[in-house]
């Protein structure tokens, strides 16, 4: 969606929009292999119409897609008239990947004579981040962060904490306040949490069957009814807390599977883990607070930055270890922090969270984020809780560093066969019959 919207905005800035009579979209690699199941086509059409991920209504993309499918007309952003657009002729799925990145797409705009007015290639590099071809090429050159509190490794982050006499959340808070006001930082963090929490609530109260031929039934509402009906005296036992934690994660990912509003954390396929662990903290940890939620998010963000800088958060590049594995690592760090962990213990929690996801494949059945993705988020949330608690038992000293495990994850992803990296060509995806 973001790439398509950017494409149209660029057309408008160039003054070429009035010349356009046709737009063609070509998907390559993983975007092509799982695009139908992931709702990629719907997202692209919404972007071409000017919608943005942050503001689009939950049902808008599906409605736009149905409109184009029926009338073969596209209301391109900024144009008074609609364009002819055929889903068969103008939205093409190419099996091969572009050499630069496994998640590639090319958009072209043509005039009345069929001459290409403007074309651009974009790459979806994970976590909602999109770069153009030129930007992707320049990304191979490390960007120097000249902020006083810059860090590019966990070792540097821990050194900063010791030097500044603060924790990881404190470092992140001060970094954010260098570019926006404290009020804006606080408001942004709370907006993220409110969106996450609302998604959990929607998922727990929604019923029916998820889209697609697998006919996967939504289970979160049923589990919610079971857990809510328990004896109140049993609601805060350790077993009950784990049940609720799993439910929270499943609720989010059922929403994601049907195109609902989620927070990319760090990806949509792994969007249930961080919200679930925060909700666990809010609902089951005495003394939880808004300030604690903010510290959780800031700490998790610092860990996410390290994966983004030094490895990948793209399932198409490194498999699900880069999605659920990273989300688990981030959530483990955040929870450890709000439970009183030192920066060294937090780093240990993040390391444990990833270490036990190394080699995890991304093999969605039917190209849909349903099987095994929904349950996998529940498992990732539980492992994050365990990783945080294990780290708190120690003093922060451990053999394998977070930097080492991030490097290992990157190497493992490079060695992983393409069929296990969000292509639905291997693993469960080829061993489960679609009915």
Short description:
Residues 165-429 form the Serine dehydratase-like alpha subunit domain. This protein is of the alpha+beta class and 435 residues long.
Descriptive overview:
The chain has helices spanning 2-14, 30-33, 35-38, 40-48, 60-71, 133-138, 154-164, 168-176, 182-204, 220-228, 238-257, 273-284, 290-310, 315-318, 324-338, 343-355, 373-393, 402-415, 428-431; strands spanning 22-29, 73-74, 83-84, 91-94, 103-110, 116-124, 130-132. It has 19 helices and 7 strands. The protein has 2 domains: 2-138, D-3-phosphoglycerate dehydrogenase, domain 3 (60s Ribosomal Protein L30, Chain: A, 2-Layer Sandwich), CATH 3.30.1330; 154-431, 2-methylcitrate dehydratase PrpD. It is α+β, with helices and mostly antiparallel strands and 435 residues long. A hairpin with an 8-residue loop joins strand 2 and strand 3 (83-84). A 5-stranded mixed β-sheet has the order 4-1-5-6-7. Strands 2-3 form a two-stranded antiparallel ribbon. It holds the Pfam family SDH_beta. Keywords: 4Fe-4S, Gluconeogenesis, Iron, Iron-sulfur, Lyase, Metal-binding. Pathway: Carbohydrate biosynthesis; gluconeogenesis. GO terms for molecular function: 4 iron, 4 sulfur cluster binding; L-serine ammonia-lyase activity; metal ion binding. Residues 1-134 form the Serine dehydratase beta chain domain.
């Amino acid at each position: 969606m973001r790439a398509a919207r950017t494409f149209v905005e660029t057309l408008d800035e160039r003054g070429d929009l009035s010349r356009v009579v046709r737009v063609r979209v070509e998907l390559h690699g993983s975007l092509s292999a799982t695009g139908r199941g992931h709702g990629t086509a719907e997202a692209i059409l919404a972007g071409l119409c000017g919608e943005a991920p942050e503001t689009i209504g939950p049902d808008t993309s599906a409605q736009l897609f149905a409109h184009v499918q029926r009338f073969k007309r596209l209301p391109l952003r900024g144009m008074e008239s609609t364009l002819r657009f055929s889903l068969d002729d103008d939205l093409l799925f190419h099996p091969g990947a572009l050499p630069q990145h496994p998640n590639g797409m090319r958009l072209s705009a043509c005039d009345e004579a069929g001459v290409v007015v403007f074309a651009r290639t974009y790459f979806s590099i994970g976590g909602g981040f999109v770069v153009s071809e030129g930007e992707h090429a320049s990304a191979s050159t490390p960007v120097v962060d000249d902020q006083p509190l810059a860090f590019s490794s966990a070792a540097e982050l821990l050194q900063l904490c010791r030097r500044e006499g603060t924790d990881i959340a404190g470092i992140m808070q001060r970094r954010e306040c260098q570019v926006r006001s404290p009020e804006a930082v606080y408001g942004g963090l709370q907006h993220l949490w409110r969106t996450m929490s609302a998604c959990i609530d929607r998922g727990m109260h929604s019923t029916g069957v998820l889209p697609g031929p697998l006919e996967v039934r939504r289970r979160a509402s049923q589990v919610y009814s079971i857990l809510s009906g328990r004896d109140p005296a049993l609601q805060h036992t350790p077993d009950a807390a784990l049940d609720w934690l799993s439910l929270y994660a499943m609720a989010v990912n059922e929403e994601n599977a049907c195109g609902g509003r989620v927070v990319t954390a760090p990806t949509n396929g792994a969007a249930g883990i961080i919200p679930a662990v925060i909700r666990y903290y809010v609902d089951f940890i005495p003394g939880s607070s808004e300030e604690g939620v903010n510290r959780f998010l800031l700490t998790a963000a610092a860990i996410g930055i390290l994966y983004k800088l030094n490895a990948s958060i793209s399932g198409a590049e490194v498999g699900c270890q880069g999605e659920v594995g990273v989300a688990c690592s981030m959530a483990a760090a955040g929870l450890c922090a709000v439970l009183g962990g030192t920066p060294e213990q937090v780093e240990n929690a993040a390391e444990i969270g990833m270490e036990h996801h190394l080699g995890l494949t991304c093999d969605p059945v039917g190209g849909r984020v349903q099987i095994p993705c929904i349950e996998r988020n529940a498992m990732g949330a539980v492992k994050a809780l365990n990783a945080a608690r294990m780290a708190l038992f120690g003093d922060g000293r451990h053999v394998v560093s977070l930097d080492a495990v991030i490097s290992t994850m990157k190497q493992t992803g490079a060695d992983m066969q393409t069929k296990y990296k969000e292509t639905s060509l291997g693993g469960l995806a080829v061993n489960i019959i679609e009915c």
